[in-house]
Amino acid sequence: MRILATMTGFVPARENFDLTEELGKKLEHGAAFIEFPVEIITLDDSIPTRNNVIYPLAEMKIAVERERLQQMLNTGVFLSELEHPDDPEDLLRWTKVDRTNVHSRFTKLWFEGNKLMGMVRTVPGNGNLMAKAILNGELPSFSIRVIGKPTKRDDGVIVLHDIHLIAVDWVTYPGNPTSYVKSSDVYKLVESPITKGFQYPLLKASGEASPILREMGISEDLVSVGKGVYATLNDDYKATMESVRLRNSIRNSSL
Q1: Cβ atoms 65, 170 nearer than 8 A
Q2: Please, is 201 exposed, middle or buried when counting C-beta atoms within 10 Å of its C-beta (0-12, 13-18, 19+)?
Q3: SS3 content of the chain, % helix, strand, coil (to 5)
Q4: How far apart, in whole angstroms, are the C-alpha atoms of residue 115 and residue 7?
Q5: Residue whose C-alpha is closest to residue 67's, from 161, 143, 168, 164
Q6: Most distant CA pair in the chain: distance in Å?
Q7: DSSP string across 44-58
Q8: Phi then psi for 105, rounded to 5 degrees?
Q9: Tens-digit pLDDT profile for residues 134-149
C-alpha cells in the first residue's frame, strides 16, 4: 500500500478530555456536548472564495446583525446541517434548515478583523454524528449558506450584496480554505445547560415571524445564478444566467 500523506503532531480529541465514564455516558445520551470555536469565513474584499464569490466584510456585518439571525442565536436555534442542500437552485429548500439533518449549532458569532468566527456546540440528536466524528479524530469544516443579490465583475467574479445568512453547515470541503478546526486543543466537553439552569438574553420582538424572502422585501420572481446566489429576473441577468450556471457546473464536476 502506498502512503500518500501522513499526519504529524495529531492529538485525538479523546486525549484532550477528562472523559470519565460518567461524562462519556452523558455525552452518549445527550446530557453533555462538545463545544469549540471555529473560523467561519475570511472576508477579503479583493480575493474570492473557491466558489468564485466575494462576500464584502461590511455586507456580512449587516447580515450578522439582522433581527432574524440574532433571535435564532439568542434562542439556541441557529442550527447547522450536515452538508449543504443538494440543489442550491431549490430556493425553498436552500432557505430552510431540516432538523432531521442537524448535528451542531452556533451559539455566538463575532468578528476578529476580517474573519467571521463562531462558537459551535454539537447536537446530540440524529445519531450525535459530529460528537462521534470529533472523538474519532475529525477536525470539522464549515461553510456559509446564504442568499443575496449579486454583481458580476468583468473577470467573472460575483460580489454579493444584501446578504442573508441562512446557516453555517458542517461540510467536507469548505468554500473558504481556512474554515475548519485547526487543532483538537480547542475542544471542550461541557454538561448540557439544562442540568445547571440557563437563560438566553431577553429579546424585544418587532414585526411578525415571516419567511426569509418576505423579510428581504422580495416579491418578484428570482432566478438562481448558482451556489445559493439569487437575482431578480430581469434583462441584465437573463443574458448572464446560463454562462454562470455553466461555469458552476464545470467547477463542480472538476472537484
Answers
A1: no
A2: exposed
A3: 30, 30, 45
A4: 26
A5: 164
A6: 64
A7: -SSS--TTSEE--HH
A8: -145, 155
A9: 999 999 999 999 999 9
Lowest mean pLDDT among 13-22, 112-121, 206-215: 206-215
**Cell numbers linked to 126:** 440524529
Nearest alpha carbon to residue 200 among 108, 116, 80:
108
Between CA 229 and CA 163 the distance in angstroms is: 9
**Gap between the Cα atoms of 27 and 79, Å rounded:** 19
Angle, alpha carbons 124-128-131 (nearest 5°): 100
Cell of 90: 431549490
The grid cell for 18 is 477528562
Local structure of residue 79 (DSSP, 8 states): E
Tens-place pLDDT, residues 191-249? 877 655 656 665 554 554 455 666 655 554 555 555 556 655 554 444 444 444 555 55
- Antiparallel, parallel or unpaired: β 32-42 and 141-152: unpaired
Question: How far, in Å, are 7, 13, 28, 38 from residue 18 at the CA level?
Answer: 24, 10, 15, 22
CB atoms within 10 A of CB 225: 24
Phi, psi of 133 (to 5 degrees): -65, -40
DSSP state, residue 145 = E
Average pLDDT of the chain, as a whole number: 80
